[in-house]
Amino acid sequence: MDKLIHIICFFLLTTLLQTLHCQPQQPQTNLNYSLCREESYNYGDQLSNISYPFWGHNRPSHCGGGDLFYLNCFEDQRKNFTSTILLGSQNFTVLNINLTTYTIKMRRTDLADEVSI
């Protein structure tokens, strides 16, 4: 009888611990999608008023189309503001994005001014 009580207590305690440990996570509720419409990507002179699917700098990740469309911003030593995008393992400097014609003008960052795509 004592053995049966110990087994029952063990299972009850195990179930209780699992229940406490496996509480469902609260969903993220602070994603303000109305800001996505109002907040476009702006950085430097060449890129302004860029919207979905691009994100980065002043535009939060939930406003974009995933990691593929992340625009990285930086300022070089000559105070030039540039944006780059990572495609595969290659980094490109973004020269222009035209959302009307769905085109991006960019060059490989490692080639500097030699080649534009």
Automatic annotation (TrEMBL):
User: GO CC: one term?
Assistant: membrane
Q: Where in the cell is it found?
A: Membrane
Q: Print the keywords alphabetically.
A: Signal
In terms of superkingdom, the source organism counts as Eukaryota
Signal peptide bounds? 1-22
Q: Which residues cross the membrane?
A: none
Membrane topology listed for this record = Single-pass membrane protein
**Chief subcellular location:** membrane
One annotated GO molecular function is: polysaccharide binding
Which residue ranges does the record assign to the Wall-associated receptor kinase galacturonan-binding domain? 48-107
* PANTHER family membership: OS01G0690200 PROTEIN, WALL-ASSOCIATED RECEPTOR KINASE, GALACTURONAN-BINDING DOMAIN-CONTAINING PROTEIN-RELATED
Know the name of this protein?
Wall-associated receptor kinase galacturonan-binding domain-containing protein
